[in-house]
Amino acid sequence: MRKSIISDSQINLLKQKVLIQAGFNITTKSDCVKLSKYLLNTGVGYISETTIYRLFLKDNNKHAPYKSTLDILCNFIGYADLSLFIESNLVEYGFIKDYNLFDTTLDFLFYSCIKNKDFKSLFEYFEKIEDLTDEVKKGVVLNLFDALVKSDNNTSFFKEFAENKFVREWILELGHDPKFRIANYSEAYLYYLKNTIITKDINHLQQYVFTNAILFRSCFIRNDFKTASIYGLKLYVQNLNLILSNSHDIHFFPFVRFISYRLWYLSLINTSAVDTLEYAQYLLEFTKLNLMNADKLKRDILFNTIGEVLVCSNLPISYQVTFKQLFITELMDLNLNGFDFKLADLLPQLQPNGLLRYRP
Questions:
Q1: If phi over 0 gives left and psi between -120 and 50 gives alpha, with beta otherwise, what is residue 341?
Q2: Residue 66 phi/psi, 5° resolution?
Q3: How far apart are CA 199 and CA 209, in angstroms?
Q4: What range does the domain containing 44 cover?
Q5: Distance CA 284, CA 288 (A)
Q6: Tens digits of residue pLDDT in 193-232
Q7: Cβ proximity of 171 and 144 under 8 Å
């Protein structure tokens, strides 16, 4: 049987659409067996696990697939045959140079969908991985992050997925990027908050605290103090009493952010030196109190969040020295003499969560 004639760009696009339809990635031989059985059970035809392995995990230039194989895959994703798939997607995507940007299949898949606003495919994909393990979802987060970083206009994606459970929980919350390396990243959180009513329930209040705190931080460290003041006003003036009265029900990380960034807000409103130093001392006491019986994650959160605030504040260096003393156990575990390093240099050693752990 004659081998098919298909470009690398076209075959890559076909494989990504197959992954969307299947709902899982192909990274091992067992995945190849799984897809082979899946194709057979759907009635589109039989492709051996060996052929799938060559197609998805080997160099395609050395293992050109037969047209009959690609016809089955095209049928699986809703096309009558390979010819119709190529014809349809030449119009839809144009096979421009963007298809050479990625080495990882899912990166390319997500980038293509975002660029071409193929949100239906993404909705289906996120729905299909809902019941998979957390490790699988973490991998999806990293692939989507890489795609979003390479995309220069993500507004439509953020708007479309503002209420999507997977995107909210895994991309914007657990997968938050403190460095804001994604274009239009602030807009993602504004859409995230769009239908939030802070007096409705604790979840809404928690989302409000989390979002305004990270937006405040982003603006402050970029020296956009005017915008930072807007977010600070919401947290530390307009809703201060509401947040404090529900502090025991708010998750640890967003509340630590809220407590910590208030020191920065005090500097923006020209609080007296006496009051500012008093609040800095409160942060040290807050840290010491919460370190008691805290697990490693909470200790890392305290170290990074409050440590960053102290580093980026015009306080006497003695506050940073005292703060480091509270974490002598962590510094010893890292085989570091904390007093030989500035706090700013120690912060990257203990990452709390989010993307910096995987994409520093």
A1: beta
A2: -70, 150
A3: 12
A4: 1-98
A5: 6
A6: 998 999 889 999 999 999 999 999 999 999 999 999 999 9
A7: yes
Asked if the structure places residue 71 within a domain, the reply is yes
- What pTM did the predictor assign? 0.73
Q: Using an 8 Å Cβ cutoff, are 81 and 75 in contact? A: yes
Q: Is residue 325 part of a domain?
A: yes
CA dist., res. 257 & res. 348, Å (int): 17
Considering the domain boundaries, does residue 139 fall inside one? no
Residue-by-residue DSSP string for 38-66: HHHHHTS----HHHHHHHHHS-TTTSPPB
Whether residue 142 is contained in a domain is answered as no
Q: Which of 40, 68, 98 is the last residue of a domain?
A: 98
Q: Which two tokens stand for residue 172?
A: 């914007």
Alpha-carbon gap, residue 312 to 320, rounded angstroms: 11
Output DSSP code: residue 316.
-
* Residue that terminates a domain, selected from 71, 98, 125: 98
Tokens matching residue 214: 């990270």
Please state, in angstroms and rounded to a whole number, the distance separating the CA atoms of residues 98 and 34.
30
For 26-83, write each residue's pLDDT tens digit: 888 999 999 999 999 999 999 999 999 988 887 555 567 888 999 999 999 988 888 8
